[in-house]
Amino acid sequence: MLNENFGDSAWLDAQYNNRARVPDHAAHLAQWARDSQLARERTACVLDVPFMLPTRQRSLLVPPTLDVFPAARPNSPVLLFIHGGWWRSLDKSDHSFIAPPFVRAGVTVVIPNYNLCPTVGVDTIAWQMAQALAWTHRHVAQHHGDPQRIVVAGHSAGGHLAAMLLCCDGRKIASDLPAQMSTSALSISGVFDMQPLRQTPFLKADLKLTAAVARRVSPAFFPAPNGTLTAVYGALESEEFARQSRLIQSRWGARVVPVCEAVPGANHFSVLDELTRPNAQLHHMALQLLKR
């Protein structure tokens, strides 16, 4: 059932415009950038690796690339982290700070970029992230990662894309890939029903979602995948972000989404910081997924 407020433009902006909801959002973004620069300087990494198939690259203005932060030992679990920004902003280079605490814990970290809206649509971005996952499955062993232990995680728009990848059938990408390239995903403040965003004023001009595309890229309307999704959101986030996580659990069931919970005291930006704090519950949650 649709919320009666979904036709109210002001209400939708208030629910989904996180920069307006969090007055100090710029400080969070600036800190991410500083910490990311330090991460690239102080952590072994391989930057700007092309991952798109050549046939797809020709149609893109700037083919996206990914960064790899290898673990010290071979056969390590792999975290593929997808950044947020409403599919229209931010960059993998703003999120290198995710890598160091996981590398120290024995995890290889892969952080891909994607082309941004409105240059491309959300469906194209989802396809690009499927290609990033395919590259990771094929090549991560060269960076000490175990292709059989890939956990996909993402924040905000990246949380949506992580859920999309859990449903991705690798056999539809290439014959050398398995059906299930990842069996675990972590969605942080993800969006799983895209229909409200069609009417959200600050987004709709860039996303250009038709009803058909919104349905096609809404994981809440997909059959439940074989893997498991952990869905978390900040306790200080809007009721819509809480609803989105509860929705995916109700649609896919508690077997597929066993965890759907709020991170105490966190807003849309500070919730991501909880992923990188070694003593934080969200960090431990991610490590449990990685080291199953």
Proportion in β-strands = 15-25%
What Rg is obtained from the alpha carbons, in whole angstroms? 18 Å
CATH architectural type: 3-Layer(aba) Sandwich
Overall, the morphology is globular
Mean pLDDT across every amino acid position: 95
* CATH H level, superfamily name: Alpha/Beta hydrolase fold, catalytic domain
What is the number of helical segments per DSSP (H or I, 4+ residues)? 12
Major sheet size, sense and barrel closure: 8 strands, mixed
How many beta strands in the DSSP annotation?
Answer: 8
CATH topology heading: Rossmann fold
Strands ordered across the widest β-sheet: 1-2-4-3-5-6-7-8
Structural class comes to alpha/beta
Succession of helices and strands: HHHEHEEHEHEHEHHEHEHH
What is the name of the CATH class? Alpha Beta
Alpha-carbon distance between the two ends: 37 Å
Q: How many domains make up the coordinates?
A: 1
Low-confidence stretches: none
Fraction of residues in helix:
25-40%
Summarize the model shown:
It is built from twelve helices and eight strands. It has about 290 residues and is of the alpha/beta class. It has one domain: Rossmann fold, CATH 3.40.50.1820.
Topology:
Layout: H1 9-16, H2 18-21, H3 25-42, E1 46-50, H4 54-57, E2 65-69, E3 76-82, H5 99-104, E4 108-112, H6 122-139, E5 145-155, H7 157-166, E6 184-188, H8 201-207, H9 211-216, E7 228-234, H10 239-252, E8 259-263, H11 270-276, H12 281-290
Parallel strand pairs: 3-4, 3-5, 5-6, 6-7, 7-8
Antiparallel strand pairs: 1-2, 2-4
